[in-house]
Amino acid sequence: MTQLENVTVQAQANVYFDGKCVSHTVLLADGTRKTVGVVLAAALTFGTEAPETMEVVGGSCRVRLAGSEDWTEYAEGSSFDVPANSSFDIEVDERFDYICSYG
Amino acid sequence: MTQLENVTVQAQANVYFDGKCVSHTVLLADGTRKTVGVVLAAALTFGTEAPETMEVVGGSCRVRLAGSEDWTEYAEGSSFDVPANSSFDIEVDERFDYICSYG
After folding, report:
1. Any CB–CB contact under 8 A between B8 and chain A?
2. A89, CA 20 to 30 Å: which among A4, A46, A62, A66?
3. Domains in chain A, number
4. Measured between alpha carbons, how far is B92 from A91 in angstroms, rounded to an integer?
5. Mind giving me the DSSP string for B61-101?
6. A97 assigned to some structural domain
């Protein structure tokens, strides 16, 4: 099971899209911020500010980056990058557990 | 903001009641397990195995312990205890962020 060690976790959750996406913020020892989260069955569009790397730690999803017409499926163990100030469409059939890194 | 420091966080979420409750498991340095989670607007019944202490770190809830007829409201900064092998009814109007400790 994927885990992040020697970190600080913020107890208040981040809730998006009426709870279709819930995450908790994690601070690494060096101050780097990540989030661990889950997207439940849904079709959503997320915007980015910083560039993001989404690492799939459970389940799967289909992703279409802004400006692309192609959907790509990502399963556990894979990851995808999203540019800064962009967006991506995501479709989840069951659930998609992730670690999101920024910048 | 309440946070847990020097911990390990498991990246896969715990999802209950179709996502009305989502938590992440946290391991303290001494091996103690806690969960940080959120309950969204819902009326639910949770069962316990180990005794639980629920610390309200955001939002509020109303709770009725098994065997009681009384509902008690808990707001941020308060906590409630649930015996082992028991259950409690919980009503949340907006959201209820918690840290759950076991045993």
Report:
1. yes
2. A4
3. 1
4. 28
5. EEEEETT----EEEETT-EEEE-TT-EEEEEEEEEEEEEEE
6. yes
Question: Considering only CA atoms, which of A4, A99, A85 is closest in space to residue A53?
Answer: A99
Say what the ipTM of the complex is. Answer: 0.96
Q: Which residues contact A69 (CB under 8 A, 6 or more apart)?
A: none
Is A44 in the B-facing interface, judged by CB distances under 8 Å? no
The residue among A22, A55, A76, A95 with the most chain B CBs within 10 A of its CB, best to mutate, is: A22
Indicate whether A2 pLDDT > 90. Answer: yes
Q: Report d(CA A35, CA A86) in Å as an integer.
A: 18
CATH of the domain at A32: 2.60.120.10
Q: Are strands A21-27 and A33-47 parallel, antiparallel or unpaired?
A: antiparallel
Tell whether B15 is covered by a domain.
Answer: yes
Q: Closest Cα to residue A60, out of A47, A44, A77, A37? A: A77
A3 part of contact set with chain B, CB < 8 Å: yes
pLDDT, average across residues B83-97 = 98
- Residue B97 belongs to some domain of the structure: yes
